Amino acid sequence: MPQPLLEAQEVTVRFGGLTAVDAVSATFMPGELVGIIGPNGAGKTTFFNAISGVTQPTSGRLAVLGQQLAGQGPHRFARNGLARTFQTPRTFADMSVRDNIAFGLKFAGKRPRKYVFWGEETGVPWVLRTADSILGLIGLNAQADVPAAAITPSQQRLLEIGMALATRPRMLLLDEVAAGLTENEVEEMARLIRRLRDELDLTVVWIEHAVTTLLRHVERVIVLHQGKKIADGTPREVVRNPEVIEAYLGDEMNDETSKTEGAEA
Ligand SMILES: Nc1ncnc2c1ncn2[C@@H]1O[C@H](COP(=O)(O)OP(=O)(O)OP(=O)(O)O)[C@@H](O)[C@H]1O
Ligand SMILES: [Mg+2]
After folding, report:
1. Do 125 and 75 share a domain, yes or no?
2. Is residue 160 located within the same domain as residue 176?
3. Which of 11, 45, 88 maximizes ligand 1 atoms within 8 Å of its Cβ, making it the mutation to test the pocket?
4. Which residues form the ABC transporter domain (predicted)?
5. Mean residue pLDDT across the chain
6. Nearest to residue 132, comparing CAs of 140, 120, 122?
7. Same structural domain for residues 232 and 256?
8. Residue 23 in 3-state DSSP?
């Protein structure tokens, strides 16, 4: 059995009297594409913050490739191959799209890797070696010289994914990268996410409210509700789970169905 890429054990995050993440355990294996769903305020982002070192868990253990990292800062997590996007994109508005990616590449250079001694980037997929090849991968070549502030919101989301990829991660955490996109754009985003996993051998964890699209593309889905993990299984299993339907899916799927019906009417 291969070693888990990331293992969270009983991770809890409290803000004063509020338990935002309540003893959540989850294991992510290399190459998995896992979705995280749940109502607003369920603790999805806080869980991401905990497993990427942005927020210190109140208690619990976090191992990245067997190494205990709970309590360490985000840079330690990044050095161990974790990259993430933020629910509100964090790009450098005045810098060009290409320079935003170049910033990520510079950061990646700080991660010690054996290829440093060989004077070449052996072991890094060719597509992640230069800013321009990353721009090609995310489809932003035409915007390379434009300031990040001037691109569309959906392009901003792609740029943030590109910046995360530039750190040459093993694991990519995506927080609502399809929020606010049109239905076609959501589908394109889902395809890109799958390609990243398939072609770059990444482990991808993807939070999204566009449940029907997400469930079509992931192999496993974790459901959070009021800070607790209430389900963890294949999309087929999870959509039949009465607790999940009650807490979330009933409303969410009806919303999406009525949206589609509305669009067709
Ligand atoms: N820094 C913070 N200080 C205090 N409370 C917080 C903080 N961050 C999040 N919370 C609270 O923790 C709970 C979980 O929030 P979180 O943002 O993780 O939910 P979420 O599942 O990502 O929701 P959404 O789908 O709306 O993004 C919420 O009640 C939120 O108000
Ligand atoms: Mg969130």
Report:
1. no
2. no
3. 45
4. 6-251
5. 88
6. 140
7. yes
8. strand
